[in-house]
Amino acid sequence: MVFAGAIAAAPLGCGSQVQYEPAATANAQVGQVRGRVVRDDGQPAGGNSVSLYGEQLRSSHDGIDSISVLADPTGNFHFDNVPPGEYRIATSGLGKEPHVVVRAGQAAVLTLELEPPPKFDPNQAAKPYGAPPARGRIV
To answer: Where does the pLDDT of residue 126 fall: very low under 50, low under 70, confident under 90, or very high at 90 and above?
Structure first.
């Protein structure tokens, strides 16, 4: 994805691009991850939980290797004061957990595009786990 004012790009690992720009932080030793969650039709997916996973977080987050935020109503999210390194980023409906590299003094800016929801098949009957296949269809 292309963002205006970006200064460098790197692959995200799932076909998208990460743009890097100067971070809006007073601490040049850390970076930021920010971006937007959108549906497959490009509309914002506000309210999605976005998680960042990486060993580098353990030292700055009481031994926990992940942090999560909620995307605002317009799909925007941000992680501040992230130690430099490689991270996995995830949100429900993404389908993959791409990797993003955080650089000191820079913001990694990206767009997370959700996969389309599965198509409902009215011919496929709901069944409990382990039940034999349904013999018939819902009409």
So the answer is: low
